[in-house]
Write a structure and sequence with these properties.
Blueprint: H1 5-17, E1 33-36, E2 46-49, E3 51-57, E4 65-71, E5 86-91, H2 120-151, H3 174-179, H4 193-200, E6 204-212, E7 215-222, E8 225-232, H5 237-249, E9 260-268, E10 271-279, H6 286-292, H7 297-315, E11 326-328, E12 337-339, E13 345-347, E14 354-357, E15 362-364, H8 379-382, H9 391-411, H10 436-445, H11 460-472, H12 483-498
Antiparallel strand pairs: 1-2, 3-4, 3-5, 6-7, 7-8, 8-10, 9-10, 11-14, 12-13, 14-15
EC number: 2.7.11.30
Protein name: Activin receptor type-1-like
Cofactor: Mg(2+); Mn(2+)
Length: about 500
């Protein structure tokens, strides 16, 4: 069975009725209710939403699967009729979906039923055809309205938020068509979960392009297009779950955030694998790129500005139906910044991210025992004095780490013919794999920051970059620059560099 109209319809229905957790950034008609949550995207036994749902769905040739969760959008879909593919139930009391069981409609008339009158099909045929046309028209109208709502969606004050992902920078593609279709969910940035699974199982792994403590990254092929497949190690299951959760519940389409395609838990070689499928960027991480490449000032600022744009988009909360909560990355480093083919950066790895919504004062820190990378930890984290109940605290640690990434870029920038080899931050004062204690002594006790190359002072633009680093490394977290201020300052520096010099 292909992805025909009924299939597309019930995929959208599944997302609208609560395959994912309730989204605290979405408006609801009344107080949130607590519901039983059982399904691939549940991070716990319960969730909160405007109502509780039970959804029973069957794919062609497979047993029906039942999911329980929370709904917050398209309440009218709760009143839809069950079919041979999907049945659903909505209720509005705490845990009212806990003991509900559903059944799918039969596809054939049971043999014990009496035979229908020979004229009945002749009468019912035109009636059913008319009903089908009405249903097609209603669904088509709904699609048009959704598309119009998307087009009217709120853009951020940053002016660079892209609500629809361009899957390829070189023209149209199957991936672009899929991600640009009405099959994307209104509440998140990903495809419906069942479509994600279909995509994941059509990907062929080609070559391993990276390994680490998290697992492996492979280049894969999907219908001739390269995609990146991050395969998480079993001990990092919470990071996979967190990234999947964030990408499916938050609008993250932005040129400088790694583009998400699909997530799946799949069985390969008699073992369970956790896959996250994203856009593929052949230059790899900024860490890899800086090892191979020296930079002219203009390219250095291009990398820095684009990374700052990504961080600013993460940090800002966007209000409205096309909005997003504020997000802090919590593991910002050059290995988690990718370099695109147009030599702009995009931020990756949201496995430790924290979300916050002002409207509900909701702070979601996830459930991941993993901590960030020690070399990039801010002093308040190393001293274990960070206020874990304050969202701003997490943003301030991102700024500290961003200053270190700027330092890595600056070392590889050519000024007056001079450039230094790539080195990680604090390379000269801690071991290759520093311990928590190593970093605490250097950053907190000795209060050291990386040495800024003197040659940057010879260039008025790059001396501005050096000053920015210092303002990212203030010991007092609240005194550090904001991501938006960093972005605007870097853009001004970049514009100054691009202006032609007038010779008198």
């Amino acid at each position: 069975m292909t992805l025909d109209l009924p299939r597309r319809g019930f995929l959208m229905l599944l997302m609208a009725l609560g395959l994912t957790q309730g989204d605290p950034t979405k408006p609801s008609r009344g107080p949130l209710v607590t519901c039983t949550c059982e399904g691939p995207h549940c991070r716990g036994p319960t969730c909160q939403g405007a109502w509780c749902t039970v959804v029973l769905v069957r794919e062609e040739g497979q047993q029906p699967q039942q999911h329980r969760g929370c709904g917050s959008l398209h309440e009218e879909l709760c009143r839809g009729r069950p079919t041979e593919f999907v049945n659903h139930y909505c209720c509005y009391r705490p845990l009212c979906n806990h003991n509900v069981s559903l059944a799918l409609e039969a596809t054939q008339i049971p043999p014990e039923q009496p035979k229908v009158d020979g004229q009945l099909p002749l009468i019912l045929g035109p009636v059913l055809a008319l009903l089908a046309l009405v249903a097609l028209g209603a669904l088509g109208l709904w699609h048009v309205r959704r598309r119009q709502e998307k087009q009217r969606g709120l853009h951020s004050e940053l002016g660079e938020s892209s609500l629809i992902l361009k899957a390829s920078e070189q023209g149209d593609s199957m991936l672009g068509d899929l991600l640009d279709s009405d099959c994307t969910t209104g509440s998140g940035s990903g495809l419906p979960f069942l479509v994600q699974r279909t995509v994941a199982r059509q990907v062929a792994l080609v070559e391993c392009v990276g390994k680490g403590r998290y697992g492996e990254v492979w280049r894969g092929l999907w219908h001739g297009e390269s995609v990146a497949v991050k395969i998480f190690s079993s001990r990092d299951e919470q990071s996979w779950f967190r990234e999947t959760e964030i990408y499916n519940t938050v609008l993250l389409r932005h040129d400088n955030i790694l583009g998400f395609i699909a997530s799946d838990m799949t069985s390969r070689n008699s073992s369970t694998q956790l896959w996250l499928i994203t856009h593929y960027h052949e230059h790899g991480s900024l860490y890899d790129f800086l090892q191979r490449q020296t930079l002219e000032p203009q390219l250095a600022l291009r990398l820095a500005v684009s990374a700052a744009c990504g961080l600013a988009h993460l940090h800002v909360e966007i209000f409205g139906t096309q909005g997003k909560p504020a997000i802090a990355h919590r593991d910002l480093k050059s290995r988690n910044v990718l370099v695109k083919s147009n030599l702009q950066c995009c931020l990756a790895d949201l496995g430790l991210a924290v979300m916050h919504s002002q409207s509900s004062d909701y702070l979601d820190i996830g459930n991941n025992p993993r901590v960030g990378t020690k070399r990039y930890m801010a002093p308040e984290v190393l001293e274990e004095q960070i206020r874990t109940d304050c969202f701003e605290s997490y943003k301030w640690t991102d700024i500290w780490a961003f200053g270190l990434v700027l330092w890595e870029i600056a070392r590889r920038t050519i000024v007056n013919g001079i450039v230094e080899d790539y080195r990680p931050p604090f390379y000269d004062v801690v071991p290759n794999d520093p311990s928590f204690e190593d970093m605490k002594k250097v950053v907190c006790v000795d209060q050291q920051t990386p040495t800024i190359p003197n040659r940057l002072a010879a260039d008025p633009v790059l001396s501005g970059l050096a000053q920015m680093m210092r303002e990212c490394w203030y010991p007092n977290p609240s005194a550090r620059l904001t991501a938006l201020r960093i972005k605007k300052t870097l853009q001004k520096l970049s514009n100054g560099l691009e202006k032609p010099k007038v010779i008198h």
